[in-house]
Each structure stands twice: as structure tokens, then as C-alpha cells.
Write a structure and sequence with these properties.
The chain is an alpha/beta fold and about 250 residues long. It has a single domain, classed as NAD(P)-binding Rossmann-like Domain (Rossmann fold). Helix content is about 40%, strand content about 10%. It is built from 8 helices and 7 strands. The chain has a 7-stranded parallel β-sheet with strand order 3-2-1-4-5-6-7, sandwiched between helices. Helix 3 packs parallel to helix 4 and helix 4 runs parallel beside helix 5. The radius of gyration is 18 Å and the shape is globular.
């Protein structure tokens, strides 16, 4: 992926990893468009970082993505990078009385169907652009799950598999397909307590390491994965899956 001179669209770009990536890429001289549901957050990032463009997108509203697509094509026909980052995470307790699939359905709508819909909307544009890239935010939990977040982890495992197939299909187009697999990072993905959790990696440090990996082209088979997560990535191959799963799910 070229790191300068792009026009980049970042979904879920008003907070957390998406916001930090948007700011980092903007700092490298790229034109950056961020999307999100809340207008005040879009205005806030645009105000704090002049030149970043905020556009509303609510993946639960059927007309929102086509409307965004029309506007982006009209205003930014040079778009060549899409970072499908929007995601949600919720714990689920299947032992609880009254447990149902509502939380799982919401996760699937955003984390799976949202990524597919965003890709389908903008892939025709990217196919005609030089240095085109699709990046989707997966998770290191795709490889060894936290059992208290079953659908979230499964949604990221789906994305990992789907991105492998997309990368193969698009190998001659060419559109580069990258998978960003973060560890546990200090964001509000699971709630406000995660931002200050000392077990989580500081957000700035994570993004700095990601940009370094991209700079050096250190993403074998398209996977942007920190060294600290290699053990989880290769747990089954190395015969350590059971031990790592037990350590991650000890409570």
C-alpha cells in the first residue's frame, strides 16, 4: 500500500482505531474522508484536523450507504483506498435466562454485512484507480476467541476467511486487499473502561506500529499483525491452541 498521495475513505472513523488511522494517514499527506453515525463527532474530527472530511453513514439505514456512494463518486472520483473499520462488540452470556440472538444479529449486521456492503459499493471505483487498496479491520481474536464475546470473535474469523478469498479473486485486477488484526487496544469498543485498561495496548502505540509495518511492507499475505499476536495467529499450527485458549478464558 502506498502511504502518501491517496484519497482514503475510513468507515467508523470518528473514534478509536478508525479515528487514529484517519489522523495518521492525513498526517502523511493523504486526503482522508471519515464516516460515522454522529454528526457532532464528524464535525469534531474535521475541526481538530482541517482537511479531513466527515460524511454521515449509518449502516443500519438502507439508504445511507448508496447516498454516501453517490456523493463520494461526485466529489472524490480519485478515491483509491477504502478502510472498512466500522465495528461493534458486545459480550454474550448464553447461560443467562432469556438469552436471545439480538446482540449477535447486531454484530453480524455491522461487522460482517457492513464490510461486505461497503466493499460492494466502492469496489467498482477502486478497480479503475492506480494503487488501489481495500483494508478491513479484523482482530487477533479471529484466531483464538474470547468465549464471552462469541459472535464478535466469530465475525472477525469470518472476515479473515472472506478477505483471503477476496485477495485471491482480486489478485489480477489489481486491488490490494489487506487485513488489519489489532490486539486488545485502549479504545471504547467494549465500553469506557477499556480506554484506561492497563492490559490494553495504548492506541497511539498501536497505530504507530501499524504505520511502521505498512512503511516497511511487513504484511505477509496481506495480514497486518503485530509481533505480539503471532502466537495466537499460529496457535493451531504450533500446537498451542488449547493452552492459549485456556489462558485467555480462565475466568
Amino acid at each position: 500500500m502506498r502511504l502518501e498521495g491517496n484519497t482514503i475513505l475510513v468507515t467508523g472513523g470518528t473514534s478509536g482505531i478508525g479515528r487514529a488511522l484517519a489522523v495518521a494517514f492525513h498526517g502523511r499527506g493523504n486526503r482522508v474522508i471519515v464516516t460515522g453515525r454522529r454528526r457532532e463527532l464528524l464535525d469534531a474530527i474535521a475541526s481538530a484536523h482541517p482537511g479531513i472530511i466527515g460524511m454521515p453513514l449509518d449502516l443500519d439505514e438502507p439508504a445511507s450507504l448508496p447516498r454516501l456512494g453517490i456523493e463520494v463518486r461526485a466529489r472524490f472520483p480519485e478515491l483509491n483506498v477504502v478502510i472498512a473499520n466500522a465495528g461493534v462488540s458486545r459480550p454474550e452470556d448464553m447461560t443467562a435466562e432469556g438469552w436471545d440472538a439480538s446482540a449477535a444479529e447486531a454484530i453480524v449486521r455491522t461487522n460482517i454485512l457492513g464490510v461486505l456492503a461497503v466493499t460492494a459499493e466502492f469496489l467498482p471505483v477502486l478497480k479503475g484507480r492506480p494503487n488501489a487498496t481495500i483494508m478491513a479491520t479484523s482482530s487477533a481474536l479471529a484466531f483464538v476467541p474470547r468465549a464471552d464475546f462469541p459472535t464478535y470473535c466469530a465475525s472477525k474469523a469470518f472476515l479473515h476467511s472472506w478477505l483471503v478469498s477476496a485477495r485471491h479473486q482480486l489478485r489480477d485486477v489489481p486491488v490490494e486487499v489487506l487485513e488489519l488484526s489489532p490486539p486488545y487496544v485502549q479504545t471504547e469498543l467494549t465500553g469506557p473502561q477499556q480506554v484506561s485498561d492497563p492490559r490494553a495496548m495504548p492506541l497511539d502505540a498501536f497505530v504507530a506500529e501499524v504505520m511502521g509495518l505498512l512503511d516497511r511492507g511487513e504484511h505477509p499475505v496481506g495480514e497486518i499483525l503485530l509481533k505480539r499476536d503471532h502466537a495466537r495467529r499460529w496457535a493451531e499450527r504450533d500446537g498451542k491452541y488449547a493452552d492459549i485458549f485456556a489462558a485467555m478464558n480462565s475466568t
